[in-house]
Design brief:
Helices cover 39% and strands 21% of the residues. It is of the alpha/beta class. Bound molecules: S-adenosylmethionine.
């Protein structure tokens, strides 16, 4: 089960991809100070209970888990630990496309990063070919985004993404594209297997959940062929001065 630490803020160096923060080896290895944020109360409660019950004798610094809105970091109570008022790195894993908006998240991240500190996101961008040539796809994508609670303002190509990051104030912006088959194909297969398992053991999900899963499975099947969306690893840096 994942622990939802969507943003991690190690106070010295390495960031960690944190599904299960209390067991993440990076934390112990590098002695990072991590602050995780989610906007979902249930995730926050579960993650906090795991930290306190499953690793009460954790040797390294304990992650701080906060309930907050990543699209307005300044609104999160106690975000800045008194001992280190600026963060070395800000990491958003597979969630920034949901923020309302990604751009306000990035703008609110900049002032709390130290000079030359970095931001990195595992995120989704619009495939460059999908935009001008196929208007019906754009319409279908709008519908999918609305259902998936993804503000359409977040759906931009890599070129526009980079331009907006630079306008906000980030430098050295870089992108790495993850092959669509790996991300969307994997997720489609995963959802299909879960649905089959539910049927085998006679577990019924609420109609709204069943429809939601079917839509996501269909969407991932659509995306896995490429030329709709790209899953990207994005990084940038705050300028030195
Ligand atoms: C697609 S899920 C990511 C799942 C994750 N990769 C995993 O495997 O556990 C997106 C998550 O982003 C988080 N999220 C969405 N909007 C947010 C916001 N404004 N602030 C903080 N977290 C947010 C939600 O908690 C949601 O569960």
């Amino acid at each position: 089960m994942p622990l939802y630490a969507y943003l991690t803020f190690p106070a010295r160096t390495i960031t960690c991809q944190s599904h299960d923060t209390n067991q993440n080896p990076h934390l112990e290895r590098y002695g990072c100070y991590v602050t995780g944020i989610t906007n979902e109360t249930t995730q926050h409660t579960l993650a906090t209970s795991r930290l306190t019950t499953r690793s009460p004798t954790h040797p390294g610094p304990r992650p701080r888990l906060l309930l907050g809105d990543a699209s307005n970091l300044a609104s999160t109570p106690n975000l800045l630990p008194p001992a280190s008022p600026l963060f070395d790195a800000i990491l958003s894993i597979d969630s920034a496309y949901h923020y309302n908006t990604r751009w306000s998240f990035l703008a609110s991240a900049l002032p709390i990063l130290r000079p030359s500190g970095s931001v990195a996101l595992a995120d989704v961008a619009l495939h460059p070919v999908a935009v001008p040539t196929t208007p019906w796809r754009r319409w279908a994508l709008r519908a999918v985004c609305a259902m998936g609670r993804i503000p359409f303002e977040n759906m931009v190509t890599r070129a526009e993404y980079e331009a907006r990051m630079r306008t906000i104030g980030f430098v050295d912006v870089k992108f790495e594209v993850v092959p669509p088959e790996k991300v969307f194909g994997g997720l489609a297969e995963f959802i299909k297997r879960q649905r089959q398992k539910c049927e085998e053991v006679g577990v019924r999900t609420a109609p709204v959940t069943s429809v939601g899963l079917a839509v996501v499975e269909w969407m991932c099947g659509w995306f896995r062929g490429g030329e709709v969306c790209e899953f990207v690893i994005v990084s940038g840096r705050k300028a030195d001065k």
